[in-house]
Amino acid sequence: MRSPKDPTSTAKPADPNETAALPEPGDTKEQAAVPPIIDPGRFEPFEGFRETTLACFLDKEANAAVRTVGQLLYNMVLEYWQLWPSEPEGSFRHSLRAVIADMRHIQGYLANMGRENEAARLPPFEAHLSRKCPALAVRIKEIADSVEHELGSWRGEQ
After folding, report:
1. Alpha-carbon distance 33 to 54, whole Å?
2. Which of 22, 24, 71, 146 has the fewest other C-beta atoms within 10 Å?
């Protein structure tokens, strides 16, 4: 997994004429934005973008801005909902398939984090966590497989 701070990253260098609002490299006066602790009973305020994506936006203001855009998009789509075509399997099954897709993303993300220990020299505690990630990926896979099994292959037959 490439990290935004990874010096081997192939990201295109920023145009120096467009970086006035960004902190200078090495400027550590501000602490980075950190992922929130989400109460599962209050998940809805966190609709929008995945936390694994938002974690790449380390600048607090940029992170807040992207979160705001995600929430705005979510609210806009809810307002427009009645104009969308109907889900072929119905709303509930459609949403469960989205849950499975998110779990598959997390499954792959955790598996990749497990490979970080092989690719980089992590500090001991991070290496320990990295070694735990493949087993966590398997547990997520089992849950996703279970939900997928319950849904079956039916995709709209009457």
Report:
1. 9
2. 24
Whole-number Å distance between alpha carbons of 52 and 45: 16
The three-state secondary structure class of 58 is: coil
Positive or negative torsion for Cα 47, 49, 55, 61: negative
Are residues 110 and 136 in contact, defined by beta-carbon separation less than 8 angstroms? yes
Residue found by looking up tokens 């501000």 in the block: 30
CB 55 within 8 A of CB 35: yes
Residue 140: phi, psi to the nearest 5?
A: -65, -40
d(CA 34, CA 63): 9
Tell me the whole-structure pTM to 2 decimals. 0.75
pLDDT tens, position by position, 128-153 = 999 999 999 999 999 999 999 999 87
pLDDT at res. 3: 55
Distance between CA atoms of 52 and 58, rounded to whole angstroms? 12
The pLDDT score that the predictor gives to residue 14 is 47
pLDDT-flagged residues of the chain (< 50): 7-22, 158
